[in-house]
């Protein structure tokens, strides 16, 4: 079976043509780099995605600190991950890089702050 | 009046990269003027990842990408003023700004324009119908959600397949809104393929090409939109209308360089890019006034914005140190398949990186640069998309300083 994929690893967005037999890729064409091969293999077995969202900050100069995952997690766990992150709130000041959840849902992925939020003045 | 070697108008990705590179070239008398409370520009609200793959070989969120440059600005002690809105830049490079301390004015030796771009709005499209609340540009919805902690929508329709619109389709879905569909008037998507995959397909959000919104319904709040298929002249096809019930319409229908200050400074604009006409030094027709980033032409990736601003800074540093830059008498002329090229003028004596976008999807083609009939650079493209900026390096040893550069797409 021939299936087309758009690689999402980088902005090149390579269009990959993949010949699949018994759920496995037997040939992959159209990729500009080896990451395309890894991407297709991952998509066929266990698609992974990263997510970004925000958490509320108490006493901050801004109401929100943005967060992301350090590694992608299975695509079908995204909404579960969002539910976990939604339970969080932090106190200002909070530094970019701070780990808020280690091993999210048991995966090798941490929730980290991506924007420093200082304390509100006065 | 206080004097400055270089004033940078706008502390977003282009302005920050220019400031750091100027410093690295030995220029110290710099001032960045930023109208927001913080440096970083639009990256502050672009919390998704995917930034920095070219520049830092790793995927970062927008705030993290900006912070890398902000940290350098802070470490080097490059002066900046936030909460400071530039009101006027004159042809003789007097910069007037409104700040917390009142009106401030500087005589600059050089001015760097890095104001970025603005979103096209409903008004610019002229969509008929009522004028209810609930019609937002994608960037405004993004600011509500990612900066101000406000959820602007429950039932959503998106017009336009720009990258920010698709990214907001995903963001809204993650926060519990229902995004019914994205409609695009063009026969091809205007955003990047990877965003169609990871922002729409992943969440089963359909994308309808050659469709537009023909009417907006609602009283105080949006209640729905009428959508129709369009023909090859973008005219709605009667009988194809369909009504969608929604409380929010997100527009992702294009970005326009923000050049009001440039116009007042006497900077000549290119009606294709709506940004300045620049030479290979990123210098405008006004000596000592430079432009780069989205104020010059809308980029696809911030990594290229940073690179362009750094190239600008090298020239601006040379200008501030040694005076007027070499003449650029060679015009860069594009064929009908290409929307525009940057720069528009070159010297023919220095390696130059031409940036361009194609006007339509072209498969299996070559971008070819010729001078005096001779091929001097080429790039093979499996697929040239209007969504992607194409860059091609033309080497100095292949060029002369007479004869226009002709850029064309050959299949």
What would you say this structure looks like, in words?
The complex is a heterodimer of chains A (122) and B (411). Chain A is elongated, with a radius of gyration of 19 Å. The relative contact order of chain A is 0.16. By secondary structure, chain A is an alpha+beta fold. Chain A starts with a strand and ends in a 9-residue tail after the last strand. Chain A has helices at residues 35-45, 78-86; strands at residues 2-6, 15-21, 24-29, 48-49, 52-58, 64-69, 73-74, 90-91, 99-101, 111-113. Chain A is 16% helix and 35% strand. In chain A, the strands form 3 sheets. In chain A, strands 8-5-6-10-9 form a 5-stranded mixed β-sheet. A 3-stranded antiparallel β-sheet of chain A has the order 1-2-3, with helices on one face. Chain B folds into 3 domains: 1-119 and 254-325, 3-Layer(bba) Sandwich (FAD/NAD(P)-binding domain); 121-253, FAD/NAD(P)-binding domain (3-Layer(bba) Sandwich), CATH 3.50.50.60; 328-411, Sandwich (Immunoglobulin-like), CATH 2.60.40. In chain B, α1 packs parallel to α2, α1 (13-24) crosses α8 and α4 (138-146) packs parallel to α5 (163-174).
Question: Average pLDDT across residues of chain A?
Answer: 94
Strand content of chain B: 35-45%
- Number of strand elements of chain B: 27
Q: Which strand order does the major sheet of chain A show?
A: 8-5-6-10-9
The rounded Rg of chain B comes to 22 Å
Q: What's the tally of helices of chain A?
A: 2
């Amino acid at each position: 079976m021939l299936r087309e994929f758009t690689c999402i690893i980088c902005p090149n967005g390579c269009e990959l043509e993949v010949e699949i037999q018994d759920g496995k890729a037997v040939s992959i064409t159209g990729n500009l780099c080896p990451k395309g091969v890894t991407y297709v293999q991952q998509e066929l077995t266990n698609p992974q995605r990263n997510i970004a969202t925000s958490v509320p900050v108490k006493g901050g100069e801004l109401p929100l600190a943005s967060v992301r995952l350090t590694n992608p997690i299975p695509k079908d766990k995204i909404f579960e991950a969002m539910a976990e992150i939604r339970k969080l709130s932090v106190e200002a000041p909070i530094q970019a890089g701070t780990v808020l959840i280690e091993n999210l849902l048991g995966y090798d992925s941490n929730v980290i702050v991506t924007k420093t939020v200082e304390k509100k003045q006065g | 009046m206080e004097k400055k070697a270089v004033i940078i108008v706008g502390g977003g990705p282009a302005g920050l990269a220019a400031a750091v590179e100027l410093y690295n070239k030995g220029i110290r008398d710099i001032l960045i003027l930023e109208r927001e409370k913080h440096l970083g520009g639009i990256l502050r609200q672009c919390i998704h990842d995917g930034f920095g793959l070219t520049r830092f070989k790793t995927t970062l969120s927008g705030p993290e990408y900006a912070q890398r440059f902000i940290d350098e600005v802070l470490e080097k002690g490059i002066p900046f003023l936030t909460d400071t809105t530039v009101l006027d830049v004159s042809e003789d490079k007097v910069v007037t700004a409104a700040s917390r301390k009142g009106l401030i004015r500087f005589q600059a030796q050089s001015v760097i324009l890095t104001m970025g771009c603005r979103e096209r709005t409903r008004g610019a499209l002229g969509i008929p119908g009522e004028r209810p609340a609930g019609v937002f540009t994608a960037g405004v919805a993004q600011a509500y959600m990612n900066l101000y902690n406000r959820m602007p929508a429950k039932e959503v329709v998106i017009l336009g397949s720009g990258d920010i619109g698709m990214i907001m389709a995903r963001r809204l879905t993650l926060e519990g809104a229902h995004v019914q569909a994205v409609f695009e008037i063009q026969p091809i998507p205007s955003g990047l393929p990877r965003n169609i995959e990871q922002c729409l397909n992943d969440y089963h959000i359909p994308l309808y090409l050659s469709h537009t919104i023909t009417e907006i319904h609602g009283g105080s709040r949006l209640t729905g939109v009428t959508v129709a298929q369009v023909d090859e002249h973008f005219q709605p096809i009667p009988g194809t209308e369909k009504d969608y019930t929604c409380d929010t319409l997100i527009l992702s229908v294009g970005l326009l360089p923000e050049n009001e200050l440039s116009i007042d400074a006497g900077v000549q604009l290119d009606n294709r890019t709506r940004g300045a006409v620049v030479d290979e030094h990123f210098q405008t027709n006004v000596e000592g006034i430079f432009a780069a980033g989205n104020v010059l032409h809308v980029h696809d990736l911030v990594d290229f914005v940073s690179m362009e601003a750094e190239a600008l800074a090298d020239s601006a540093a040379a200008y501030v140190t040694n005076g007027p830059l070499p003449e650029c008498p060679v015009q860069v002329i594009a064929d009908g398949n290409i929307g525009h090229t940057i720069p528009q003028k070159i010297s023919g004596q220095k390696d130059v990186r031409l940036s361009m976008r194609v006007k339509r999807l072209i498969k299996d083609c070559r971008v070819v640069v010729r001078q005096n009939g001779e091929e001097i650079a080429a790039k093979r493209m499996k697929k040239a998309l209007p969504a992607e900026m194409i860059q091609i390096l033309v080497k100095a040893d292949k060029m002369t300083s007479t004869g226009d550069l002709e850029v064309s797409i050959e299949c």
